[in-house]
Design goal:
Length: 127
């Protein structure tokens, strides 16, 4: 019987201008075995996505500079396989239109909620 190769942890990039929220969420993801990278702005996240891939990108909609929906649109052009979940404390009806294939979660979020949304996004076609 041959041993299977060790499974690499899944990776998530948390993009939020609230350092405390991003830090708290990153601790929870790490408890679930995820490799976590945090960014404080859409611009930083767009730069990081050029350097490496992530299994999941979780971002706030409203941040100083580029909004999360604008960031997602650019990311999907560069990396169409990206699974992106945007979050906001504002109801979805009050948000700008989200790019096709991008999921939405209302804040506050917790890791189990995010993981359920990630599983749904991973299974959904991008048509």
């Amino acid at each position: 019987m041959t041993a299977s190769p060790p499974q690499l942890p899944r990776s998530v990039m948390v993009v939020d201008d609230s350092g405390v929220f991003g830090f708290t969420l990153s601790l929870e993801f790490r408890k679930h075995g995820w490799d976590v990278y945090c960014c404080g702005s859409a611009e930083d996240a767009l730069q990081k996505v050029k350097e490496r891939t992530f299994d999941l990108i979780l971002a706030d909609v409203f941040m100083p500079g580029k909004r999360g929906d604008q960031m997602a649109e650019v990311m999907l052009k560069e990396r169409p396989e990206s699974k992106i979940i945007l979050m906001s404390s504002m109801p979805k009806e009050g948000l700008p239109p989200l790019p096709k294939g991008v999921a939405y979660l209302p804040k506050p979020v917790n890791v189990p909620m995010v993981l359920q949304a990630f599983d749904r996004a991973a299974k959904a076609p991008r048509s």
